[in-house]
Amino acid sequence: MASVSIRDVDKAYGPTVVMKGIDLEVADGEFVVLVGASGCGKSTLLRMIAGLEPITGGEIAIGGERVNELEPRERDIAMVFQSYALYPHLNVRGNLGFSLALRHVPRAEIDAQCRQTAEVLDLGQLLERFPRQLSGGQRQRVAMGRAIVRQPRVFLFDEPLSNLDAKLRIAMRTEIRALHQRLGATSIYVTHDQVEAMTMADRMVVMNDGRIEQVGAPLDVYDRPATLYVARFIGAPSINVLEGVVEGRAALRTRGGQSLPLPAGAGVESGRELSIGVRPEHVVLCADGALAGTVSVVEHLGHETYVYVDTADGRLCALADRALHLAPGAAVALAPAPEALHLFDCASGRRIDAPHKKVAA
Amino acid sequence: MTPPPGPARRRRRGLVEALNATFKHWSLLPAVLLFALLTAYPVVNLLRMAVSTIEFREGGESWSFTPLHNWSLLLADTALAPVVRNTLVFVAVAVAIEMVAGLALALLIGGLTRGKAVMRTLMIIPILVPPVAIGSMFKLMFNHDFGFFNQILGWVGIAPVSWLGSTKLALLSVIIVDVWHWVPFIFLILFAAVEGLPKEVLEAARVDGATRGQLLRRVTLPLLMPALTVALVFRAILAFKTFDEVYLLTGGGPGTSSELLSLHLYKVFFEQNQLGYGALLSVFTIIGVLSLMVLARWLTRRWALR
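Structure tokens for the assembled complex are given below, as produced in the milestone run.
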């Protein structure tokens, strides 16, 4: 087990710079999730940690030891691939024991280790099967087993669940988390699924366009997104965003011409252009709120109900009471809770914190 | 006016239905006839020839049934043993070199980040050259006095050798030409397979701790095995029947030192005019190649099952 340090790492393909100055510390035993839309560089970062992709600048250290120049096999890491990447010519036993066989571990010991791992992952009955005889979920388990059997210093996961169906994905999510709690191994997990990131991570790293947007515990990231991008990316349904200009000390004139009260002491000067984010659960449906509109869609999910309202500032979403019976076309008003508004600079997309909140943090 | 349904009409409908039901079989008939004409007839004729003596007399051919005579010709053919030996040596050595070189090239070029397409195109050229041109080309290169090979030897201070005129070197020279001609064929088959290797599996092996050697031995080669088998079998079958290169370069000589089975067959048929015996030899060649194919099928099945 070991920590992973990524210091000022750059990545370029020829003249094209895809990553610049990435810094990230992963503590020993931590479960860190890299999350972002496809093409944001999260997989590339993982592959650079694995040594499958050379880095252009900076330094990567595992357990305090610089590994820039080391081959993947010298880094003592294990990786679970999206395609599982099982060895098609070897049965499950051969796949599990492959890394041990490469190290010339005695046969009896390999067998014992394989059996033990197979038991942990419930693969005992499948040891003699070949990968093509296994279901997706079983292959995924074998891929996990192949990583576990080696007891590496760091586990790397590259979207390991994205080829599974929804139900299995949720089950495996919990299982991977439980496994981590048992083994306590440092894990870095890449996903594009923000729900996976929220549910699995000790800390999550939101990436965008080759940069790290925010690092933090899932709820911290959810509650205090550092940028508009993060605010939009985390949370489903997505956060509502309104753009406008600050008018006076405590109101925003939206692009749609409506007036939205800002939290007291927001500390933004009049005339400044802002993007305001507000999550659906912080929007109250009422008779006379700040934003007027008509109901367009009502989504019942059982435990919650979302109402989409067309306003002068586009379609906004509110979490509503299930008992509230609204038909499409009904005129309603929305009242975002002022203290739950997230303020972002319109140009940079960066979060603007109220002065007093900064002191509190 | 429609005729009333009667027994005749019912019978006719039964016939139509039967024709419809079996139509898929009938529709094969033209193909079956063509196959019989083009493939089955020549084979049957060959078998008939193999047990006959055929002579040309008074402007016509005369067949006589003499199975034992052909067999005794086979036993008396002193050239046959060296020819079979030459053929086996030729197939084993040439195909082995071609397989190793083709695989090495495929892996090497497959590992390039650019220029793959150019390399692949360059590699196709030897296959496109007509065998006659290859024969003439190499005959010049093997020339004792001004040939390319002897010039090279001269530069490193070795006396010129008689590539095609010595019993020790003639077969080797033919093998050199064959390797030049056929390595690209193996390369193309294996290159496609190398390009199709699952990238993540190779990466997984690298992360799992495989050195370059282990990666090749334990992952790449097993994954390439189906393609390797196909390449080997095709090449071995073709090598078994090599004719043009020997015919053009050495004519099988000196003596029988580079004579291969196909060339021997040619000589028996067209120089010695022993059509019956030639046919018998052909049958044996076919059996030899067929057993290779059966072996190949068995091998590929075994690999497919794994």
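The interface with chain B takes residues 50-52, 71-73, 77-79, 81-83, 85-89, 98-99, 101-103, 130, 146, 150 of chain A (CB under 8 Å). The longest strand of chain A covers residues 16-26. Further analysis is deferred to the final report.
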